[in-house]
Specification:
Strand order of the largest sheet of chain B: 1-7-6
Order of helices and strands of chain B: EHHHHHHHHHHHHEHHEEHEEHHE
Number of helices of chain B: 17
Distance between the termini of chain C: 44 Å
Oligomer: heterotrimer
Number of strands of chain B: 7
Largest sheet of chain B: 3 strands, antiparallel
Mean pLDDT of chain C: 90
Low-confidence stretches of chain B: 1-15, 650-654
Chains: A mainly alpha, B mainly alpha, C mainly alpha
Structural class of chain B: mainly alpha
Number of domains of chain C: 1
Helix content of chain B: 55-70%
């Protein structure tokens, strides 16, 4: 990136301006994610009637943090789209595998009468 | 060789261009053994991959012949049940990881840079690291035979209960057989060998993806890439997504055996079935890792010997990608009899049937390529046609397995053995041999004489059918896999005897192939640059190719670039980029990849010895990892280096 | 690993415009998704089929400490982003300052993890050998910890290398950026682990 930018003084100027703007973007993002982490901690202590909402809120908040880091801190937003595709491809296969595995395993696998697992 | 080495140093500030940044002498001008050990040339690395994998093909083949000799007659006692288990485990592991995969890797290495018009791969030293890591893993697996011999001679005695020294848990290593209670240090050799092989395969796969995306010659668009390069790309993607689950599963198993965790140990609540899931999440994509390169080779050979462009180029590539993607969604069809639940069984059954569609599309496209072509029956083509026919046979029994009710009858019988040997020998091996014959003149510059090659193809196909076709009947008659022997009166004797005869016919075919290769290497006639009137870039340069591949970087104007260069219009001729006064930039050779990989070898053997109860081996294992770490640091600090070549001849600048 | 590899061809003809090292790193990270995905699914599967076997996670987890660790790792990611920005601008001093901060926060995270493991194993009798829960918990979080430690080693090496005469901001910016990508990835793995392994244990249906 810098090697391309430094070749031409005008491009270098634009590049530096972009980088200075990013400084504030990074700062704001870090504050936002700190706040979200705090909210996550508070959420699990809330005596909220529907725990399902808490469950999905927690997943949603972590998703926001995840997207924040990969698109801003890891520059995917400003980089070649192909890199996003490569990474999301890995994410899709991994998430699909996790989901399929979790569906395939059920509590019915374990016979409570067997008693073999009560050693702990 | 038509090149002269330049003496001009790369960095002007350096006093001695032969020294790296840390002051060590670079092995750039070494010859003989040191040259082979330090080389970063993709062609030499490919040749080493091919030689090692053919050696392991022979070793795995001998293991198979001993198995078949044991099963030739009922109630045979040629070998003990323990040795039998070791043989089928090592046969499977060797053939998958040490024969077919590295032989495919040999083709990747040799052909991809040549087919895309590049000087080398993107990371040449990493390529050397992949090779030596593969060798380290292969040694860790096979050195177990030597330890077993030492044990028989009384020189080496593992602690109680660990005396099963050669891996004997099957190539899939199902839990709970792999637990310390049921298997000896053979399982440790197996875990560490596969772990190290995985590192080598992953490094190579990253390297090839970057190479194919970033090192293409000008004008070599993605949809102009030769199909073999496309299949390399898809295979590499399969490797980078399939090997991590195996790494984790092996790591968990290692923790069970060394540190008392309960991932797969029933006593602690572990679920052996989790191992099956994790193994087949890797294992099914692995099947396509074995077959997609073969499909790529066939897609190169058929158009050349039919004098026609490949029928449905984009469809063949798209089918390959679909096969690769679906490959991650069908792993549980290896586990239909474990009780997945109705929904799971139905879903995996349907997805497995779906894979038959893109595979069928490829077969029809190959037949479409042959249709109306001017077919020439030379050796690569005979092997190639054998591939289509035999692979279809394996494919048909594969479709039968995709139906869960049928599969529960065939599961763990010789029917399954017949199926996957048809797709692995009839598919992968026949195509790889076809590829060896096809590109041998390019690699060595020599062309075979006589008909031994033709006969080897015919004998191999006959031997293959003679061996594996009766197995379908044996499987339907209920003969289970992985049994040391069988009783009189089961009705399996006659067919088993026939199968054993077939196995030896197949071995004779392979021997004829090896003899023909050696004979051609020693006494072949000069092949010329383009003996087949072929279509891709690698045939446009001399045989064997010079160390820098292309004197000038080619500029590609169309798919089948070299064919159109020969027979197309003027504006379809391959152009060239002037290398300029500085010549062709060559990477420096290095000892560091070898050093880094050798740490894995020490680590693997030391860990197995630790399991055997040999004192101080934990420290040796740490020493091994330290060697790897030191290797990585020296590698990073020595700097890439490099020198310039000025190709002589008509294109020479100045 | 990427820092130790090289690019042999000049960049004039790169058809994709992506630096080979950066592409390599993203491929590695995509592959690492499967790696951590398998570790996390092992843990979640055993928590799913044995919800009541072994110690109650709520009685052993110290969620305030873990939230603090998550905060520390997020901050280290911020400094990493700033360090990458600094090296691209050629500001060597700022790069070094931010890299040191990343390493300090990384070490703080690791100390938190060491304290957590010690607390679990000694005070709460929850060990690596405590059934499937102990096995999968320690292997997963431990593997993540090893990733953090390797990241610190990598950044420390780059930091030390920046004092040698071979180091130039413009030629080594990509090495720093690639190390940064690795560091951020370790952070997002923790974001997933923090929610999936720690927080969701506190939700009761």
């Amino acid at each position: 990136m810098s090697a391309i930018a430094s070749a031409d003084p005008a491009a270098q100027e634009t590049f530096l301006r972009e980088e200075r703007k990013r400084y504030f973007t990074f700062m704001n993002l870090a504050f936002l994610m700190t706040a979200l982490t705090g909210i996550e901690l508070v959420l699990i202590y809330l005596p909220f009637p529907s725990q399902t909402i808490i469950y999905f809120t927690l997943i949603f908040l972590s998703l926001i943090k995840f997207v924040g880091v990969i698109f801003w801190f890891m520059h995917l937003l400003w980089d070649k789209a192909f890199l996003t595709i490569v990474f999301l491809f890995g994410m899709v296969i991994a998430s699909g595998t996790i989901a399929a595995l979790l569906l395939l395993f059920s509590e019915g696998y374990v016979d409570p009468a067997m008693g073999i697992y009560e050693a702990d | 060789m038509s090149t002269a080495t330049s003496t001009a140093p790369l960095g002007a500030e350096k006093a001695d261009e032969n020294r790296s940044l840390i002051g060590l002498r670079r092995p750039d001008h070494t010859t003989g053994l040191a040259d082979w050990l330090t080389t970063v040339d993709h062609k030499k690395i490919a040749i080493m991959y091919a030689i090692f994998s053919l050696a392991f093909l022979v070793i795995g083949g001998i293991e198979a012949l001993i198995i078949r000799a044991q099963l030739a007659v009922a109630e045979n006692q040629l070998i003990t049940a323990e040795v039998y288990n070791q043989l089928f485990t090592m046969h499977g592991t060797t053939m998958v990881f040490l024969a077919v995969m590295p032989l495919s890797a040999a083709f990747f290495n040799y052909l991809v840079p040549l087919q895309i018009g590049a000087r080398d791969v993107a990371f040449p030293r990493l390529n050397s690291f992949s090779l030596w890591t593969f060798v380290a893993g292969a040694i860790i697996l096979n050195i177990s035979w030597l330890f077993q011999a030492a044990n028989l001679l009384g020189w080496f005695n593992p602690i109680d209960g660990r005396s099963d020294i050669v891996p004997a848990v099957g190539w899939f290593g199902y839990a709970p057989y792999t637990d310390t209670a049921y298997s000896g240090i053979g399982t440790d050799f197996w875990i560490l060998g596969l772990q190290v092989l995985g590192i080598g395969s992953l490094a190579a796969a990253f390297n090839f993806i970057v190479t194919i995306f970033n090192m293409r010659a000008p004008g070599m668009l993605m949809m102009r890439l030769p199909v073999f390069t496309w299949m390399t790309l898809i295979t590499s993607f399969l490797i980078i997504f399939a090997f991590p689950p195996l790494t984790v599963a092996l790591g968990e198993l290692m923790f069970d055996r060394y540190f008392g965790t309960s991932f797969f140990r029933v006593e602690g609540g572990g679920q052996p079935i989790l191992w099956q899931h994790l193994f087949w999440i890797f294992g099914h994509p692995e099947v396509y890792i074995l077959i997609l390169p073969a499909m790529g080779i066939i897609s190169e050979i058929l158009p050349v010997f039919s004098r026609k462009p490949l029928f449905g180029y984009s469809l063949i590539i798209f089918s390959g990608a679909v096969i690769g993607f679906l490959g991650f969604a069908v792993w549980s069809h290896h586990m239909f009899t474990t009780g997945l639940g109705t929904v799971g069984t139905a879903a995996f059954s349907l997805l497995t049937m779906a894979i038959a569609v893109p595979t069928g599309v490829k077969i029809f496209n190959w037949i479409g390529t042959l249709w109306g072509g001017k077919i020439r029956f030379d050796v690569p083509m005979i092997y190639g046609l054998g591939f289509i026919w035999m692979f279809m046979m394996g494919g048909f029994s594969g479709i039968m397995h995709s139906s869960a009710p049928a599969d529960s009858q065939q599961h763990d019988t010789y029917f399954v053995v017949a199926h996957f040997h048809y797709v692995l020998i009839g598919g992968s091996i026949l195509a790889l041999l076809a590829g060896l014959y096809f590109w041998f003149p390019k690699v060595t510059g020599r062309m075979w004489q006589g008909k031994l090659g033709h006969w080897s193809a015919i004998v191999i196909v006959i031997g293959l059918n003679w061996t594996f076709f009766p197995m379908h009947y044996l499987g339907m008659a209920g003969m289970p896999r992985r049994t040391h022997t069988y009783l009189e009166g089961t009705g399996w004797q006659a067919l088993n005897f026939a199968v054993t005869i077939g196995a030896f016919i197949l071995a004779v075919g392979i021997l004829m192939f090896l003899i023909d290769m050696l004979r051609t290497y020693r006494k072949g006639v000069p092949a010329g640059n383009d003996p087949w009137n072929a279509r891709t870039l690698e045939w446009s340069i001399p045989s064997p190719p010079p160390v820098h591949n292309f004197d000038r970087t080619p500029v590609v104007k169309a798919r089948d670039a070299f064919w159109l260069h020969k027979f197309g219009t003027v504006d379809q001729k391959i152009g060239s980029v002037d290398p300029g006064a500085h010549g062709v930039h060559m990477p420096s050779k290095s000892w560091m990849p070898l050093l880094t990989s050798s740490g894995f070898l020490v680590f693997g053997i030391a860990m197995a010895m630790k399991s055997a109860g040999v004192p101080l081996m934990g420290y040796l294992a740490i020493t091994g990892l330290s060697i790897t770490l030191i290797g990585i640091y020296l590698w990073a600090l020595e700097g890439p280096g490099g020198y310039h070549l000025h190709p002589e001849g008509e294109h020479r600048p100045h | 690993m990427s820092a130790a590899t090289e690019v042999t061809e000049s960049q004039e003809h790169v058809p994709t415009g992506m630096h080979p090292k950066k592409l390599m790193m993203w491929l590695f990270l995509a592959s690492d998704c499967m790696f951590f995905g398998t570790l996390i699914s092992t843990h979640l599967i055993y928590r799913k089929i044995y919800p009541d076997v072994g110690p109650d996670p709520r009685s052993i987890f110290d969620i305030e400490l873990t939230t603090g660790s998550s905060f520390i790792l997020l901050m280290s990611s911020l400094f990493m982003a700033l360090a990458v920005s600094a090296i691209h601008k050629g500001e060597l001093k700022s790069f070094r300052r931010n890299t040191v901060l990343v390493m300090i926060f990384g070490l703080l995270f690791l100390s938190g993890q060491v304290y957590e493991f010690y607390d679990f194993a000694v005070n709460k009798d929850f060990k690596l050998t405590t059934g499937t829960f102990g096995s999968s918990f320690y292997l997963m979080t431990g593997t993540h910890g090893v990733h953090v430690a390797l990241g610190i080693l990598w950044l420390g090496s780059l930091f030390a290398y920046s004092y040698t005469k071979h180091f130039k901001a413009e030629t080594h910016a990509m090495d720093v950026e690639v190390a940064g990508l690795y560091w951020h990835f370790v952070d997002i793995v923790w974001i997933v682990i923090f929610t999936a392994v720690y927080l969701l244990e506190y939700v009761s249906f």
